[in-house]
């Protein structure tokens, strides 16, 4: 097994590409296990340009093929990067014998339980799953206000209330995002993901008649890590798409946690937020 190699289990979005770039900057050869149902096909373009990047495509559910691939490539350390939509577990996934056995033995089919069991199987096979932030620490949010505008009094009250709600649902591994207005919970994340939760909150507000609404017409989005967040997987992430979704929904405030949230394209996010009058507050975990 080579310490100069890193296995990358790639989900969707930009996260796998950023981690791949960071790992290569550290001089590592990267063996990518690309998930057919999730990974962007552009990852093949990187492999075509860089002989130290090798991509193997497999379907969600092919746990044995993942292990065999890493063994053949001499991978002893691996990282998960990028989202795998939670609803895939109940839809397109076709488990092989190894994953089917794992699923049968789960007490509950939430993210922590499933990925923790996968990590245990990989460990038993000599493949250590390491923190997904190990090569991306500069992208972890730091305490403070990122934008030109700080949260106002109403938004601070929504953050305080929303964090209690968000930490409650995150403790049950249901989701990590809530959308609040005037200290009323408008939307709670489940399997749909953060952006869909924000969009749903926007749709709820757009359906309200102005004269019948008692809520302030401003949405605050609160995203937290789980109380016992395993940084090897499912780390909170925000990117430019999150801001674009907030703008479309009419949200004015975003709250995230310091040291436990990855912020991709921070300069572009802050510029978009400032242009839209959105405030981004990073609170201590």
Walkthrough of the structure:
- It is a single chain.
- This protein is of the alpha/beta class.
- The protein is 36% helix and 21% strand.
- Strand 7 and strand 8 (184-188) form a beta hairpin.
- It is globular, with a radius of gyration of 20 Å.
- The two termini are 37 Å apart.
- What characteristic shape results from the CA principal axes? globular
Q: Structural class of the secondary structure composition?
A: alpha/beta
Strand order of the largest sheet: 6-13-11-9-7-8
Rg from Cα: 20 Å
Task: Return residue spans where pLDDT drops below 50 for at least 5 consecutive residues.
Answer: none
Order of helices and strands: EHEHEHEHHEEHEEHEEHEEHE
> How many DSSP E strands?
13
What is the strand content?
15-25%
Number of helices: 9
* Distance, first to last CA: 37 Å
**Average pLDDT:** 90
Helix content: 25-40%
How many strands, what sense, and barrel or not for the largest sheet?
6 strands, mixed
Short summary:
This protein is of the alpha/beta class and 285 residues long. 36% of the residues lie in helices and 21% in strands.
Characteristics:
single chain, 285 residues, alpha/beta, five-stranded parallel beta sheet, 9 helices, 21% strand
């Amino acid at each position: 097994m080579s310490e100069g190699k890193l296995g990358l289990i790639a989900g969707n979005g930009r996260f796998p590409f950023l981690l791949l770039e960071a790992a290569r900057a550290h001089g590592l050869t990267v063996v990518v296990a690309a998930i057919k149902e999730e990974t962007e096909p552009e990852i093949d373009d990187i492999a075509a340009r860089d002989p130290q990047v090798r991509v193997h495509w497999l379907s969600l559910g092919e746990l044995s093929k993942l292990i065999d691939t890493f063994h053949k490539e001499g991978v002893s350390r691996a990282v998960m990067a990028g989202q795998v939509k939670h609803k895939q577990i109940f839809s397109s996934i076709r488990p092989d014998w190894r994953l089917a056995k794992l699923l049968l033995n789960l007490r509950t089919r939430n993210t922590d339980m499933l990925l923790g069991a996968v990590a245990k199987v990989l460990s038993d096979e000599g493949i250590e799953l390491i923190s997904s932030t190990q090569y991306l620490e500069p992208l972890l949010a730091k305490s403070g206000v990122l934008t030109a505008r700080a949260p106002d009094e109403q938004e601070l009250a929504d953050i305080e209330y929303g964090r209690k709600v968000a930490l409650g649902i995150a403790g049950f591994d249901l989701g990590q995002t809530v959308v609040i207005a005037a200290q009323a919970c408008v939307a709670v994340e489940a399997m749909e993901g953060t952006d869909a939760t924000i969009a749903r909150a926007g749709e709820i507000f757009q359906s309200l008649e102005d004269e019948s609404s008692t809520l302030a017409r401003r949405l605050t989005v609160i995203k937290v890590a789980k109380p016992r967040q395993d940084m090897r997987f499912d780390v909170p992430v925000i990117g430019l798409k999150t801001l674009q979704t907030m703008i479309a929904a009419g949200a004015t405030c975003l709250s995230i946690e310091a040291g436990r949230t990855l912020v991709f394209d921070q300069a572009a996010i802050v510029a978009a937020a400032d242009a839209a009058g959105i405030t981004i507050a990073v609170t201590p975990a």
